[in-house]
Amino acid sequence: MRLRLDPYGLQLFVSAAEESSIARAAAKENIAPSALSRRIADLEHALGVALFVRSAHGIQLTEAGNIAYERARQFEAGLDTLLRDVRSLSGVVSGRVRLFANSSSVIGFLPERLKQFNAAYPMVSIALQERRSIEVIRACLDDVADIGVCVIEPVPSGLDAWPFAEDSLIVLLPRDHPLCARKRLRFGEIVQHPLVAVQSGGSLDRVLRDRAAAAGVELQVSVSVNSFDGVCRMVEAGLGIAIVPSSAASAYAGSAQLERRPLDEPWADRKLRVIALRKSPRSAAVTALIDVLKR
After folding, report:
1. Which residues of 229-281 form beta strands (DSSP E)?
2. pTM of the complete model
3. How many domains in the chain?
4. What is the pLDDT of residues 54-108, one digit of tens each?
5. Distant-in-sequence, close-in-space partners of 152: CB < 8 Å, separation ≥ 6
6. Whole domain around residue 144: which residue ranges?
7. Residues 274 and 260 in one domain
8. Spatial separation of the C-alpha atoms in residues 259 and 17, rounded to whole Å
9. Which residue among 134, 143, 189, 220 has the highest number of C-beta atoms inside a 10 angstrom radius?
10. Are 231 and 196 in contact (CB under 8 A)?
């Protein structure tokens, strides 16, 4: 008997595998967690094998699940190719683009660019995921993402890269901090004070720790958070000062209790790039989005 598989069910399975969580996958796919869990159970019943090990800490692929995940990704790619090939005959740019981007680009630059793209290409849907820069790069290399926007230096072999935006680093301080008396701040001055850190292991965290190691000093991290809005709230409360991208400060630092100062270091000139796996041909939808992001 021929097995009948539902493409939407496979899409939900892939999302659950990538998120390692039913709840996060359901939010990503805009479906109720109970409905997503039921679709995966239906898929497991159809295949006659468990695809996930479920626990209080989330879900994890079984050995069969890993094989199913790889084949499901190949199926999705083949289906996308089929749709592109058929729709290209009409001259209409359509399809789905997987876009991974780091936090500062999502906060500061992407909304306006994506609005512009959506107006020009209404038949293209964009699946946006916010990730750390290192994860964006890995996703593009593994062909999990069609396009990435992140901090990247140098560009790994196998990727194409184009300039996206300037996003210089600045210093965020509580309004009553003694360093507010200075118009510009050097890194050596900043590390003498408690710091609020963001995204441990991320590109910015690595840069600051590398610079501190090169200067022979140790960062005095008072608290570490995972988001730039969390950084701004901690600084506002007086728990320390922070070095953040200017885009993040512009988006979140609207409080009168916060002061911003330029970081007077050559490495503060931070650049974001658009990246994509080097391959040909690319779909018309991916090429169109790259062109809009490069402007």
Report:
1. 242-245, 258-262, 271-277
2. 0.68
3. 3
4. 888 889 999 999 999 998 888 887 777 776 666 655 567 888 899 999 988 998 8
5. 133, 137, 159, 161, 273, 275
6. 94-166+270-295
7. no
8. 42
9. 134
10. yes
